[in-house]
Design a protein that fits this description.
Layout lengths: L4 E3 H8 L3 H9 L6 E3 L2 E5 H9 L10 H10 L15 E6 L2 H11 L2 E3 H7 L10 E6 H7 L6 E2 L5 E6 L1 H4 L10 H9 L4 H12 L2
Parallel strand pairs: 6-8
Antiparallel strand pairs: 1-3, 2-3, 4-7, 4-8, 5-6
Helix pairs in contact: 1-2, 6-9, 9-10
């Protein structure tokens, strides 16, 4: 599915909210958005994902607490909004060789569809790259690899604050619950089904 950016008015229409409420969600970081001068735009896939799981079932957890629950396997996908602060999403473009080098150079762990496939999911489209990396590693990223920020980019870097990063088990793949949460951010219903199967261990 191709990404496109929608105005706040269009986003409000899709979500059944006021334009001001959508603006509040974007400014608070509860809904991804990109600012062009004085105008905000929201990726359609983020709106579709929010429509799929509209309620967070409580206040969002801080990054460290979210990762404690994720690592402990206590994630409730019906309350996925509670884990939105597990990482800050930065989208962009990067060459395939640079993407492949991130685990080796920066200790990044693979998330999203690629990790779901490695964990045994039957998904097949791994054209998008999702990786988790620490705030410290992200700060030095531009000095070592070519990364161009792009709100519609195919590379999705999930930047985790350094305190929470220490809670993530070492390895090449993000834990299953984190990968399931990544899949819920997609606009593709197949990913939502795969997220539930991943948590059930199937």
């Amino acid at each position: 599915m191709s990404s496109e950016l929608l105005s706040l008015a269009d986003a409000a229409g899709l979500l059944g909210l006021s334009v001001e409420r959508v603006r509040q969600l974007v400014v608070a970081g509860d809904l991804p958005g990109t600012r062009f001068g004085n105008v905000w735009a929201v990726p359609r896939e983020a709106l579709e994902a929010r429509r799929h799981s509209p309620g967070s079932g409580g206040r969002p957890l801080g990054a460290a607490r979210a990762w404690r629950e994720i690592v402990g396997g206590a994630v409730d996908l019906r309350r996925s909004g509670r884990y939105q602060r597990r990482a800050r999403l930065v989208r962009g473009e990067m060459g395939a060789a640079n993407v492949a080098s991130l685990p080796r150079l920066f200790g990044a762990v693979v998330g999203g569809v690629r990790a779901a496939i490695a964990h045994g999911s039957s998904l097949v489209d791994a054209s998008r790259s999702d990786l988790y990396l620490s705030e410290r590693a992200f700060a030095s990223l531009a000095s070592r690899v070519a990364f161009v920020a792009d709100p519609l980019g195919a590379v999705r870097l999930r930047v985790v604050d350094d305190e929470a990063w220490a809670l993530i088990p070492a390895g090449e793949l993000a834990p299953r619950p984190a990968v399931a949460l990544d899949l819920l951010d997609s606009a593709d219903p197949r990913h939502w089904i795969a997220a539930e199967q991943l948590l059930r261990g199937g």
